[in-house]
Every structure is written in C-alpha cells, then in structure tokens.
Amino acid sequence: MSATPAETRSGVKSEATFLAAGAETLRNGYVLTGRNMRHVARIPGRITTGLVQPIMFVVLFAFVFGGSLGGEDYRRFLMAGIFAQSMVFNASFTTVGLANDLQKGIVERFRSLPMSPLAVILGRTTSDMVVGVATLVVTALCGLLVGWRVEGSFADMVLAFGVLVLFGFAMSWVGATVGVFARTVEVAQSAGLIWLFPFSLISTAFVSAENMPTPLREFAAWNPVSAVATSVRDLLGNPTPANLPQPDTWSLQHPTLYAVLSSLVVLAVFMPLVLMRYRRLTRG
C-alpha cells in the first residue's frame, strides 16, 4: 500500500527537522569547542602538561628502559605505544574539564540556552581532541630525535594517525563519563587516573605480553590499546623486536580493524551514557 501525499510530506518534514537539529547541534558544538580552546590558551599549565607528559615518557622508556630491551630497535617499537598511551591519557583532561564546568555552575548557564546537551559534551571532547592532535605532533618530533622513523607510505601514515585520533576521541568520551559521575574536580582528578594506568600499561604498547600471567596476557591481547599500538607499528613500518613477541590472537592479527571497531563500540556505549547522566544532572 503506497503512502498518501500527507504521509509523504510528514516523513519529509520529520527528516528535515532531524537534519536541522543535527546541524544546529554541530554548530553549537563548534562554538563551545572554540570557547574551550580559548580557555585552554589562558591556562598555560594545561598545554604544558599535555605536551610535556609524552616527552617525559619517550625519554624515560627510550633511554632508561630501552638499553635493556633492545636499544635502537626498541625505540622504534616504543613510539607507537607512546602515541596510543598519549591518546588514553588525554581523556583525563576531559574528565577534569567537564567536572570543573559542573562544579562552577557553567553547565547551568548552558542549560538556560537553547542548545542540545550533546553540543556541550561534543564541544568538550572535540577541543580535547584538538589538544590531543597537538600532543601527537610534539611526540612525533621527540621520537625523531631519539631515532624513530616512519618507514611506511604517506597514505599509511595518514591512516595510522587517523586511527589514533579516532581512538583518542573515543577515550575522551570515557573521560567525559567519569567527569559527569565525579562532578567535583577533586574526585575527577583521582577517579580519572584510576583506570588510565592499568588500561594503558596492561597491553603490548611497551612490552611483550608473553611473560604476563594468563589473565593479564589475555586482557593485554584484546586490550584496544594493544591493537592501536600494533596497528600504528604496522602502518608506519616499525618492526617488533624478536625479543618482544606478540600474542597470536585475532585482535593483533587484524589490529587496524579491531582498533577502529573498538573505538566505535566505545563511542556507541559511552555517548548515550554521558548524555543520560548529563540530562539527569541538569534537570536538578
């Protein structure tokens, strides 16, 4: 049975309304991203922390641990892990930033404006993603100084950093979830770190998982951080040293696909969770 002209017009109108609402959300998110970036620029310590932290890890792992783990070969292996870890740790800034807005009542001002709740969170996660991209650039420059090189093609390099940015964006929504549940900056600062260290370190980002206890080895093999690091190594042409064998699992045999799927799953789970909690908070 064909649709009547009235039903057709109603469907077209509903679709147009949905598209208009989506476009408005993106515009509001863009405005709030600019607001957050200006706020970051006024706090030099925020930028310094975000940029110095990965440099510290590069120097620490490359020269303190690198000598016993493979020297120059390990430094080339290391950089993909540093990139992946940087994207994970960037989520802590989302946690603290969102908790700070909630604690200071800034979100209450946003609530009085005709904007989608999604725009508020999107503005926060997008601005932190921009900072994350700057972190990747600085980390890459530091890596070049310690002997790391890109051996893959330009297209592979673009894909590698695309995987990292998508993963970082997904992690920022995890950070946002912690932020809306923590609410206060003090709780957010501690809660935001509780999951970061085990999540990034129980992986193959820096070491082989072969000598880990079986539960940890399985976790490391299927940890998205491991897949992201392995994907970046493969795409950039950075070989894995013979003394650091990787688990023979589907996740690490198809690391790019698994990394992208993991990021999309994280977004599908945590975006609704953040919005649900945010709406509950702003309703009082």
End-to-end C-alpha gap: 47 Å
Summarize the amount of helix as a percent range: over 70%
Strand content: under 5%
Tally of domains: 1
Rg, Cα atoms, Å: 21 Å
Q: Mean pLDDT, as a whole number?
A: 82
What structural category characterises the helix and strand content?
mainly alpha
Give the helices and strands as they follow along the chain.
Answer: HHHHHHHHHHHHH
By oligomeric state, this entry counts as: single chain
Low-confidence stretches: none
Q: Find the count of extended strands (DSSP E, 2+ residues).
A: 0
Number of DSSP helices?
A: 13
The best one-word shape is: elongated
Task: Give the biggest beta sheet.
Answer: none
Domain ABC transmembrane type-2: 45-281
Membrane topology: Multi-pass membrane protein
Transmembrane segments: 47-65, 77-100, 121-146, 158-181, 193-209, 257-276
Keywords: Antibiotic resistance, Cell membrane, Membrane, Transmembrane, Transmembrane helix, Transport
